[in-house]
Amino acid sequence: MQLDVVTLFPDWFDWFRAQRHVSNALAQGHELRALNPRDHTPLSGGQVDDTPFGGGAGMVLRVDVMDAALKGFYDVDPVQLRSERRVLALTPGGRMLDEKFVDELAAEPAITLLCGRYEGFDERIVQHFASDAVSIGRYVLSGGELAAMVVCDAVLRKLPGALGHADSAVEESFSKALDGQPEYPHYTRPAEYRGWRVPDVLLSGHHEEIRTWRRLRSHERGAEGTPGA
Ligand code: ADE
Questions:
Q1: Measured between alpha carbons, how far is 221 from 186 in angstroms, rounded to an integer?
Q2: Environment class of 3 (CB within 10 Å of its CB; exposed 0-12, middle 13-18, buried 19+)
Q3: Backbone phi, then psi, for 151, in 5-degree steps?
Q4: What is the pTM of this model?
Q5: Which of 88, 90, 102, 119 should be mutated for ligand 1, with most atoms under 8 A from CB?
Q6: Nearest CA to ligand 1 atom 6
Q7: Tens digit of pLDDT for each residue in 98-139?
Q8: Which residue, by CA, sits nearest to atom 5 of ligand 1?
Q9: Average pLDDT for the chain
């Protein structure tokens, strides 16, 4: 999988790339590039954004700058690009990221993520260059970078070889293996701490009973919407 993040802050991704599960995925041949639209801006002084028409606070990423940048990176008309690869515009009002959406993205060979800054994008970037507008929650971040990292993290951990244990991503929250429910609770040593005992069934060694117990807890959490699940 090739993940390209178009961002005015490519350095932010150096830290992300260095994290173990990400570097594992990259060692398997997956790619994560951070591309700076400023490198291709047709405007003088490296300008990339402008004040919003109609007034208001903040700055908006210009459509002509994104057009030149995508053309520069991919050597195709950006209007065509989205039929060749998934192009995600990170924006708080977009389609909410969930496990189903992540599975869909993890099946793609190549994804480009466009990060807005300050007040976001000129809407024509979303309309004409993006295949999807994506939100990681109904709150406003100061830019799309952290949202892009969330998307990349969720996608990369689905790819074979990214997680240490082959089964780690199979039976986890919202997976098919758990009927789309949150994951069951986990416990480790000590079996008792300050009087708080681990459920006996988990210490019993009865695999079938453990499976049944886990499935029940998972469904219970799904019904309750337990925080932290
Ligand atoms: N950019 C700013 N806020 C965002 C959010 N909540 N989701 C995706 N992109 C964003």
A1: 13
A2: buried
A3: -60, -50
A4: 0.90
A5: 90
A6: 92
A7: 999 999 999 999 999 999 976 789 999 999 999 999 999 999
A8: 92
A9: 92
